[in-house]
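Q: What would this complex look like in 3D?
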Amino acid sequence: MTTPFPDAPPLTEGAAWHRLHPLSPFVRAGRQMMSLVIVLFALAVLNERQARGDVVIDAVVIGIALAGGFISWLVTRWQIAGDVLRVETGLLRRDSRRIPLSQVQAVDVSQSGFARVLGLAELQLRVAGGDSERGGSLACLRVAEAEELRRQLLALAGAARRPARAAEAGVAQAAEPGAAEGTAPAGGSAPTAAPTAAAPGPLAAGPPSADSAGSLAGDVREAAAPGRQLFRVRAGRLPAAIVLTASGVRALVIAAAAGLTVQLTGSPGVLGPFLPVVLGVVLALWRQFNGEYATTIVAAPDGIRLSSGLIQRTAETIRPGRIQAVRLVEPLAWRPFGWCRLEVDVAGARQRHENQAEGQRLRALIPVGSRAEADEMLAELLSCRPVPDRRPPRRVIWKAPLGYHFLGWSGDERYVVASRGRVSRQTTWVPLEKMQSVRWVQGPWQRRLGLATVRLDVAGKRVSAKVSDRDAAEALEILGRLPDLARAARARAS
Amino acid sequence: MTVPLALIGGLVGQVISAGAGIGIAAAVLLAGLVAERFLARRVAAWGYAERREDLMIRRGVLIRRLSVIPYGRMQFIDVTAGPVERSMGLATVRMHTAAAASDARIPGLDTAAAAVLRDQLAALGEAQAAGL
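A: Here is my prediction, written as structure tokens for the whole assembly.
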């Protein structure tokens, strides 16, 4: 294999460098490329008497974009050395990334529509405590190759984590990213490398291929074993459910208003200025539908496997220990059908390109499902399930007249659960060992009524269980007890 | 701070008329005293306690907050000092956990005290580290 870096020999003997798939520049540039081509095509059609020179300029623009993609592919290479994944890229600005596999939270496979046509997939490594910049992604590989590599990486990650657990039994989850990451991302995995050097050795020797699967370590086969399916969203229910949410209702109202306007004025042209708004609403709905279509949850030995998507498909595995909070949402419009939505908040799962609003939305295990399905899933996720049955004092009705009827909390030595909401009930379970800090908050109204709120912060997307509007003394008592309970839970979990 | 501001306001007002000058001075004085009282209460409400296994921070007058942050959950500690703070020899210590929502800061510490607190918290955090 000819390498473009003669001056950068691989650090580990026998660990070969690999390239991404040659078609990956097309996929990576896919979206921009498509829009560029469409714009150019539209311009060409509109301007029939286009000068020849313009066509040449268009061709040059496309050519430069393709050449850039090709060069970027040429200088990108990756390698598994021991229990570290190394990715090097960049022609002018070199970027060499070492991702210690012991710190990997999850490995996801995602495919854009264009990638699916070409049979390619992107591999994303999730590392806790940050956006995807901290992790790495390999875009793109062949689908089979990506799946195989994912299994291999997860097995290596598991192997790298285990001896650390055994060695540092006293320190909770020391091998997990959070602890070591802030100070020394690479150093954190150094002590774990030695005991496992024998296991990953043969794995790192060659590129992952179908025929090598048989000779891999037991972990790989174990991880590859099919699990039992927990849930699959019904295709008919999803569009109905999305339309019945707040944004769906908004879209319907907009559509009705638009129809009425056209009826009254008799000319569809007046809608022109509002087109961007309509487009935005429709796109948001479409994105949700596209993302949650055919959500399938499978319980596997290495965690919960989640795959979804209509055009862009993603597959991710959530290790049980990665769940920071579980939330059950029951919107008002869904209640007649008995539907609900179950979401999990995980650490280090920020998707690329997502904006603020999407960042706030959690990963839905059940985009829409019946209560029975949600109960089954909850039983899978939580070892015991307290019900938020401790009601707030009666006088809360003066402070929160609309929210009073859904308020409640409960807790045991493992979980705290709190429910709240005005028209849509949200119930949040937080495992105590995931609690980062507790806050006791009292606003002016609450002080007058002798109330207070307790919030539990977890490492996720700003989701915190909120035990709202309790008696001030009770809230203080909760605040005093929770840190000790959380410490006990952490000690038990490690 | 309030008195010089009131004086300046009064002098500016003198340009228009004597009555306006006195009026402006009185208004600025009153506003300044009210603001000072608010600030003083806010500063007085801010407090922290180093407990055996966690740090407790209290703050707020209108909205009262009491946070408990276990040492083991601290990811890193910042000591910042803005230009105003620096001119007074003060600094702010801020603790970060893996949760973005837990906001724990102790402003207005003496620079030396802030450094001591930072080292102390870092040592405690390392001893009880728990990660995610």
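A: To summarize the key features: Chain B has a mean pLDDT of 85. The helical segments of chain B are 2-16, 18-45, 83-87, 111-127.
Q: Very helpful, thank you.
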